[in-house]
Write a sequence for this structure.
């Protein structure tokens, strides 16, 4: 469901969208990274996997696939996760948002040709961006320590739990044929990585700290609906970070 590099580089893409060029350097009042030594080792491993395996495949994908086709693939997977978002909205007691995402899924899966065309957005039906990590936060579960997970990248204990739930609950996971299921996850990983290529050069200074701080700040922003009191950056619009 999530690429190694997608998690590592999405922080940079976040900063590109928000216009912020540097990460926070002040100390946190609470140590959110008690396993920094181990996390840094995993970070190096993930970075090497991305550099030597995933990034070259993603660049080849961009060269082969026309822009409209890449958009269609991204829309297809976004459509699948609209249904996952509807499930989380129900668990959150936000039934209006559940209906909103369900409506998007029905419209895009039919009129939008299995989701390859985002007709729902053109009709003014916007997506409700959420995940199970967000659901756990609404239920009052704390984020827990920061973790750098092999192949998945930055997480907290809460968001890692959310990733596991959302993966198992996804439509891709429900496909009985293992070959088809693996192809779906593989294409999604490559498509996600390709979308981050333009953000690679934005990471400055200590890459580990840069990505860690951007991830933790974005998750806080995400679960609080954009209300965050700190000096990291000003977010003008909601940015989707899938756990």
């Amino acid at each position: 469901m999530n690429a190694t590099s997608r998690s590592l580089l999405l922080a940079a893409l976040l900063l590109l969208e928000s216009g912020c060029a540097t990460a926070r350097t002040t100390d946190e009042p609470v140590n959110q990274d008690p396993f920094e030594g181990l996390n840094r080792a995993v970070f190096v491993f993930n970075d090497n996997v991305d550099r030597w395996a995933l990034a070259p495949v993603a660049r080849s994908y961009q060269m082969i696939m026309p822009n409209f086709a890449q958009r269609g693939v991204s829309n297809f997977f976004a459509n699948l996760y609209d249904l996952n978002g509807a499930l989380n909205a129900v668990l959150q007691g936000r039934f209006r948002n559940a209906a909103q995402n369900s409506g998007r899924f029905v419209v895009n899966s039919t009129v939008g040709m299995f989701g390859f065309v985002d007709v729902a957005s053109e009709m003014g039906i916007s997506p409700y961006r959420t995940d199970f990590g967000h659901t756990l936060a609404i239920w009052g579960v704390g984020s827990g320590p920061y973790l750098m997970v092999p192949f998945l990248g930055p997480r907290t204990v809460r968001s890692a739990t959310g990733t596991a739930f959302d993966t198992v609950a996804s439509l891709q996971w429900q496909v009985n044929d293992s070959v088809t299921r693996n192809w779906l996850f593989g294409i999604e990983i490559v498509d996600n990585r390709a979308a981050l290529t333009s953000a690679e050069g934005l990471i400055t200074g200590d890459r580990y700290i840069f990505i860690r701080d951007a991830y933790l700040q974005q998750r806080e922003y995400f679960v609080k609906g954009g209300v965050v009191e700190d000096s990291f950056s000003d977010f003008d619009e909601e940015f989707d970070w899938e756990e």
Observations:
- The chain has one domain: 4-223.
- Residues 1-9, 11-28, 228-243 have pLDDT under 50 and may be disordered.
- Residues 150 and 179 are 23 Å apart (CA to CA).
